[in-house]
Amino acid sequence: xxxxxxxxxxxxxxxxxxxxxxxxxxxxxxxxxxxxxxxxxxxxxxxxxxxxxxxxxxxxxxxxxxxxxxxxxxxxxxxxxxxxxxxxxxxxxxxxxxxxxxxxxxxxxxxxxxxxxxxxxxxxxxxxxxxxxxxxxxxxxxxxxxxxxxxx
Length: 152
What we know:
Radius of gyration: 16 Å
Strand content: under 5%
Number of helices: 4
Number of strands: 0
Largest sheet: none
C-alpha cells in the first residue's frame, strides 16, 4: 500500500467530515420526529467540530491529536443498512443508516491503521477510528432505545 502523507490523510479525513456533516444535516431536515431531528442536528454540529479540529491539527501538527475512547457495543454489525436516505423513512431506519455509515468509517480507519507502514500514520488512523467509534456508539444507544423500547 502506498503510504500517504500525514497532510493527505488529514485532508481526506476533513473531506469525509464534510460529507458526514452534509449527511446529518440532510437527515435533520427530513420529516422525522423532532427529537430525532435534534439528534441529527447535534451530530452535524459534531462533524463540523471534527472538521475544525482536524484542520487545526493540520495547521499545527505539534498539537495533541487524541479522541476519547468509547465502548463498542457492536450493534451496527448485527443490522442491515436498510433503505437509502429518503423523506419518508422511519426514525429507526434513519438511525440505522447513520449507524452503518459510522461503522464503515470506523472500520476504514482501523484498516488503514493496521496497514500503515509508519507508527505515526497508524496512530493518526487509529485516533480517527476512535473519533468515528464515538458517533457509532451514540447511534447504537439510540438505535437500541428506539428499536427495543419495551426493555425500558
